[in-house]
Fold these 2 entries.
Entry 1:
Amino acid sequence: MSATLMNERDLEFMLYELFDSESLIKRQRYQDHDRQTFNEVINTAKAIAEKHFLPIRQKLDTHQPTFDGKNVSLIPELKPAIEAVIASGISSATADYESNGMQLPPIIASAASTYLTAAGGVGLGYNMLTNANANLLEAHGSQALIDKWVKPMRSGRFMGTMAMTEPGSGSGLGDLITKAVRSEDGTYRISGNKIYISGGDHDLSENIVHLVLARVQGAPRGVKGISLFVVPKFLVSDDGIVGEDNEVALAGLFHKMGGRAQTSTALSFGEKHGSVGYLVGEENQGLKYMFHMMNEARIMVGTSGATLAVAGYQYALDYAKNRPQGRLPSCKDPLSPMVNIIEHADVRRMLLAQKAYAEGALSLVLYGSQLSDDEKTAPTIEAREHAQVLLDFLTPIIKTWPSEYGTKANDLAIQVLGGHGYINEHPVELFYRDNRLNAIHEGTTGIQSLDLLTRKVPMHNMIGYLATLDEIYKTIDVAKQCNNLDEFSTQLIEAVNTLKQTTESVLGAMSTRNIDLALANSVKYLELFGHVIVAWLWLKQGIVASQALSKQPHQADEDFYNGKLQALQYFYRFELPDITLWSSILHHTDSTTYDMKVDWF
Amino acid sequence: MSATLMNERDLEFMLYELFDSESLIKRQRYQDHDRQTFNEVINTAKAIAEKHFLPIRQKLDTHQPTFDGKNVSLIPELKPAIEAVIASGISSATADYESNGMQLPPIIASAASTYLTAAGGVGLGYNMLTNANANLLEAHGSQALIDKWVKPMRSGRFMGTMAMTEPGSGSGLGDLITKAVRSEDGTYRISGNKIYISGGDHDLSENIVHLVLARVQGAPRGVKGISLFVVPKFLVSDDGIVGEDNEVALAGLFHKMGGRAQTSTALSFGEKHGSVGYLVGEENQGLKYMFHMMNEARIMVGTSGATLAVAGYQYALDYAKNRPQGRLPSCKDPLSPMVNIIEHADVRRMLLAQKAYAEGALSLVLYGSQLSDDEKTAPTIEAREHAQVLLDFLTPIIKTWPSEYGTKANDLAIQVLGGHGYINEHPVELFYRDNRLNAIHEGTTGIQSLDLLTRKVPMHNMIGYLATLDEIYKTIDVAKQCNNLDEFSTQLIEAVNTLKQTTESVLGAMSTRNIDLALANSVKYLELFGHVIVAWLWLKQGIVASQALSKQPHQADEDFYNGKLQALQYFYRFELPDITLWSSILHHTDSTTYDMKVDWF
């Protein structure tokens, strides 16, 4: 079956109708660009995706990386595919010209990357981590570190990782025990074990640059005593020659449910003399640097969740339009021709739900991309601060909602294909498996919900919370001018009221009651807020569609905009009402889960 | 990690406290049994599960069956494991003594089988299908067919399959085109292609007995012209010698998301001269016979869904009790010891949800097992008919609810383990993948929902529907006598009222409006009914727990019963309220999905 990786018309809608990305070219940083150069980058990404990744998407999954005790091997087709991306410049599209970047707006780079992700770009994770690593070093490392490590990463000679998690402490980074000992030459000797290090070993580059969290001898315990180090797989001389082994040993590969092209490794550092490590920034500030990167990573995770949702939806849609099976209940003649399964109402329900989840999630992550741009390049300081406030606040939602609902969309894609969805001739079960990690890594849904309630909501007199509500009200005011959206703007006003009352109840409980109980249903709060945000973005999409429809567009566009309105209606009628139950649980500080004793299980 | 496959205490509760299985020994068929022999069979199954299946559970998944163009190979450890089950008699535990069975009540056999399923008994699917095949032939085949094919299947020499699905028609059996031509000797020549034939080829037995749906030349089109044939892989002489090839060719193996130990095959029948087929029963009655088997198979699918849910829940529970990570929000000291993750309220929520889904589903499938027994062995004809009415009606729910919510439970088990849940060192992602098929095969959720609304509800003046409501009201009457259950009996009365009003609305729409529209939200009706049924069974469990608690049991039992009450409360407060939205969608005959035009997607 020929695959439609992404919906081009919808990407165009998101970029140029919903978020007005064309206006970005007025900003100095983007003055060399125009809509045409934006589209060229997207088309290049699409072409690389179709030429290099799509043909190996299945093979990347079925031929997992292997470790013979000495070397890790990946399928040979992956390296040229990654090289094609590096050569195109897309992997550092947003970087400055001076760093060999294209100075492209993040929202355009995100849109371009969706094609690569959809085509099996799990293999591209090596690149994405390398970029995140390089970005962090550029922001917080010394010029010497940048010269030595970032340049070869930008050129594709080296690749990078983030080495945080340890076997004994998991998400609880404050409990990590990897040790760093100061050496007389100003470097450190690192020893300890890390797990789940993505891209921790492979045969794709000359060297691997690990960013390792460790605790300098004598440092405070807990999160305040964590430092960040560059620990390369191989030491490199001052003139850039890759030299001897730095005692970074691969203890083993993990075998994952999905995302199999990217190695997940257990690494052992410095078993004999300690691996040589170079301090990034200052001692004991490591977690702060890492969080800088982690916030970016969380947007990337959300983007992956949204993209895989779209890819699964597009695939299931193509399939449903072309697969004849059965007849409608109204058809009394068993000898009449079969209908394509998209004619069955329940298949349409599953497709419409996917559309609502996938395009809702995509609008959210692209909005996040734009905020990450605005906080640096918006025309005024006020606008930059405003964007930063919104992005900080929304990050747990941008990370979680697309991960959770994107995976649900993939689950529905499997169901649309039925038995065919369960086998690897079709990629929907692969999308599901790849996507399932997104609600786990870079902070689980549970962790995001605590971040939202204990940090993001109360932060600076609730500035992020209030700014977000303001944005929603602005949209409602515009929607009120479209008669056909009355049902939805009314419902969104009610939903925001529910959210406000719930927030008040929860914050009240947090200050007056046992805090463990008050936070027991925090995930329901995150779900509630996520649904309101996505409902808001769907209303935004509905406004654009309504306005466009009033201008009597040609048939294909009329269909497209009607589809947007129908997905909006689906979300408001079939999904948004779920918040009633969640808010009621939160409002009453329901103690059912809190009261459950360990011995009762 | 040592694995608790099933919760023994809970199985004991289900069998002897909830369903009073001990009283079955008063029935003549079971007069040789007592609680001790029941438990011996369960313990034997557990021992075989732990000895033969658990050690190969992971290997069965990672080492998929292979096909070298000539032969199919499975891992060698599977055959002795299956043979151990056959030798124990468990695989035909419910059969008559004359058929080498143990005349065990189905509910006991089901309970025993859960251990095998939890331990990786996907490999046992070969046995289960062979039994289903043999049961069908015993019910509908001639004595000659039984002598020739059933006996070697019962002894383990031959295995059996069900060959229904075809590439061109999928679930629409009425459109199948496999051809049968009458031969002068009374046999038929079969030709055509079948897909997704589980166990369609392997190296586990001397012969494979396919039950094939095909259309005799000149038969009516549609479902009324389908006949059923025995088509063996190898022909067998009258004295039982396995002889020449019968033109059943393996076209290929499918590679599935889960359930990988069981081959899923594309078979081609009779490419040259036609495969020899032996008619089962009468011509054109094939679908009726197959449905007889399919109803059994649907209970088995539900049982698999429930069992994998329990297995995943038990594993996640063990893990959460023993994995230290992080601290509670109330803990201000980052240097205090880490807590086990079960102390985190959100982990408890995910465990409690799993308990509510898994034990709710298990009670439902064991209830189904008992009904399938009662319809044959209950003391009075009235009781038998009553059981048959209930089972017929509830089959779509028994099939679907455990499949859908059991898979959700497995998804939560992955999330409890976090990164560890995503790798194959732990079996929870495997349980998820295995379970994901259950909402698809033997009739998808969408198909079950149409069966419920168009056949099961209106059938015989709604006799099944009314009988089911009667059973629920009986339980409510008992619950009203337990003060601590007031909240739940009141809520269930409301839920039943909602169900009744919704049923009225939907049946009204079906008779007065466009039938395709009236049925557009049929899956929501199935979900609504499923939730009411499971809420009812949880209330039943709550009654037993309350009564037991009033007798001041010892500590371990007190904890156990309190856990039951807490899971009941969880289901009523966090899950049952979902029916409000579903019933509203149905009550208003919401046309959102129906109105969505193909071109709008």
Note: Chain B has 19 helices and twelve strands.
Entry 2:
Amino acid sequence: MDVPSFARWGDAADAVALPDGVRELLGLREPAPPVARPALPPVRLPADVLDALAAACADVATGDAARLAHAAGRSTEDLLRLRRGEADGAPDAVLRPADHAEVAAVLRVATVHRVAVVPFGGGTSVVGGLRPVAGGFAGTVALDMGRMCGLVDIDHVSRTATLQAGLRGPRAEELLGDAGLTLGHFPQSFQFASLGGYAATRSSGQASAGNGRFDDLVLGLRAATPTGDLDLGRAPRSAAGPDLRQLLLGSEGAFGVVTELTLRVRPRPDAHSYVGWSFPSFEVGSAALRALAQDGPLPTVLRLSDETETAVGAATGAGAATGCLAIVGLEGPADDVAARAAGVERLLRAHGGTPLGGEPGAAWLDGRYRAPYLRDALLDAGALAETLETATFWSRLPGTYRAVREALVTALGAGALVLCHISHVYAAGASLYFTVVAPQADDPVDQWRTAKAAASDAIVASGATISHHHGVGTDHRPWLATEIGPVGTAMLRAVKNAVDPAGILNPGVLIP
Amino acid sequence: MDVPSFARWGDAADAVALPDGVRELLGLREPAPPVARPALPPVRLPADVLDALAAACADVATGDAARLAHAAGRSTEDLLRLRRGEADGAPDAVLRPADHAEVAAVLRVATVHRVAVVPFGGGTSVVGGLRPVAGGFAGTVALDMGRMCGLVDIDHVSRTATLQAGLRGPRAEELLGDAGLTLGHFPQSFQFASLGGYAATRSSGQASAGNGRFDDLVLGLRAATPTGDLDLGRAPRSAAGPDLRQLLLGSEGAFGVVTELTLRVRPRPDAHSYVGWSFPSFEVGSAALRALAQDGPLPTVLRLSDETETAVGAATGAGAATGCLAIVGLEGPADDVAARAAGVERLLRAHGGTPLGGEPGAAWLDGRYRAPYLRDALLDAGALAETLETATFWSRLPGTYRAVREALVTALGAGALVLCHISHVYAAGASLYFTVVAPQADDPVDQWRTAKAAASDAIVASGATISHHHGVGTDHRPWLATEIGPVGTAMLRAVKNAVDPAGILNPGVLIP
């Protein structure tokens, strides 16, 4: 299907075809309707405000292409709406600041003129993080951080690097790689998401078991707020009051615009080992992952698909396991990888695992960033496809798994495929990542919203968190209110009012 | 000297004598003046308010002994003031709540009647954390958490335990030990400090290299605030907005009273190895510690004394090293300890270390909680003795070390002993812990305040944090303002006003 880039994931050149048999598996009868030409709302901002913004930041675009490219994130709902011509989230203008001072200047002008400002990194939010509430504002601008993409400093002694927030994953790895270093942060959105976005949403990469989450990597940060700058992080850890870095991490552009990050870096690994393991059941495999997370040695990457995900993978050629497929990746110095591999193998065998060799590992590595492209192909074919995720303590995990699966199957019907894997582990718990594929109903947006609400209710009722690594955005706000309660909500509101009294920063996200 | 317990550290039975030679080393001529009988201010709270408080919490004491025992923390300034009869920080009453509901009820009554509430755990603050600003309030009460000392639950699958916040270290270890578990958190205040205090001040234990800081152990918490309860922590880690747990950790009783904590626990180690190492200089030793922190294997305990601390230790019989003494402790399963010990030895030898065997390790273990008792003996003998600490990135550490040393020596004169050790390490940086001993001037409180201010200025000017693990209290507030800036300060104030609009919670601490 000829879907323009503003309504698809990533680079058109990397689009994938639907694997054989998927149409039949899902009983898909007809492809999605053709894509409508989106009707952009007229630019609302008056000329004098645009002039004031241009005085703060020279790079201002108000053309259709720029506005459309910043009209939404990349959730399935975002894509479905764009496909049917709904681009009402498009900003009036796109500003591309050159440096921290321009960001700060834009926030001052926007405060005076009541312009909503949506910080925009890679544009890959899947929780409605780029869908601002425009009511009550003179207009909306996207603050595209793409020009702020430099390496500021490397501190080899402390193994830290200071990088601008607009840098995207591959370029950051390139800059650090020249110095023999890596961040080691590889979320599925790696090719497009920005460092600032990672920080603002508490991203978690596929190598989180070994390298930590992105919030673990953040040692210092600089942010511009409407009321002034924040420069935080004088030590890796401190007892100088609450850790305010942790208040900016996960703030989704509602408290400030992160412009610079000081991050933990590590030497580029010189050895890699990615292998597959098979477990007789999700329960047995989960216990094996738990043992690794609690007693070590901890792999760099550790994932376990449930029976359905394993079977679908096998049926579409992406795996050969029966039971449940686990991927175990180790990276580091060669002797360390060898020693850990031996320890991992001993423990996984003792927990009922059967090694499958390097082929499943290589297949996983090859396809690690491909799922969002596959989603486009599924949408083209008339399927609904989306993911959601959560995390909780190990003892609650089976209950959360069952409750969410049941909620999705009930909402979407027996024809839906509900796949799940554990993608991130901790000593005390783990995340669950669900993928849902079903034939589209007449209104697939409504179809998904109903299913997602049921799943979110199940997550919260089971005691799990509404998001392990996607964030809150607009989609998860109602459930965040339950999760943090009225006092937690009051804390977030108070911080928001203190740093952004006019409420211009990404209005409508995060805060219940 | 016969100093009553309210003006000394810990248990009188554990008091220590001054080692031989210390008087001469310091040129101490005469002992401290005799201790004055403290004049307690009259109870300010009117009878109807006391009645209302008693209705909220049955256990209320207004006797002199209870008030004196809660009159101050355990900084040298606190002790010096108590020794000279100043007990103006004494609360009007001491309340000992039985459960969370009583804590919440006390906060409601205190809000209505404008009573300042000072949450009191072990009473071991060394930064003026128990020295409330009483002006503008009807009176002050200490909320002693000592009765809330139960084990609520152990989750063996998730390796977590839920414990009441008034539990002290030894009892918590006893309760967990019955189940084969340990927290592994051993700060110098271990024998007296409470779990709630650890959380409220971001405590860091001597085994932090291997077991993490206390804030690393906190997975969930329950707190009472004047505006309602907070129940946080549905997963080890989450992307559901900013991590609000991190806002309560380090909040020093100013945002709420932590009543219950869900903590990471681990199996009790079945093997221990504590050995000493000698390094030719602090610089060489620091580089060796850095290598362990960055490349592993990481010991459980890792400390390095500078040349002066090592020499003083040797002169007073607590060590035998020339150069700089390091203590390397390993705990865990026997095979793991053996494997790590071999890796540690290889790396430390390669970095210029010489092993000293188990004797220095045993001596350190034996004396690990004794330093505060030694301080009492020094105060008795007419010496000023106090500690301060900071942390920063490895690349800044030598500059911070030099600047703080110089500031202290300049302020206290050449006769002062300024000792330092690295007590906590991270991949990106480490802490510095200074001990200062000098002959007392005519006004030792003023003498120390001047020296401490100079050291604090040097810490902040060198880019380090004003506290790595003691907290902010009242003593560090001016420097916290520089560290987090006006926007950070506004954030703290906003949260405070949101959860405690009457400002009754530990007024005067933390917030600049």
Note: Residues 151-267 of chain B form a domain with the Uridine Diphospho-n-acetylenolpyruvylglucosamine Reductase; domain 3 fold (CATH 3.30.465.10).
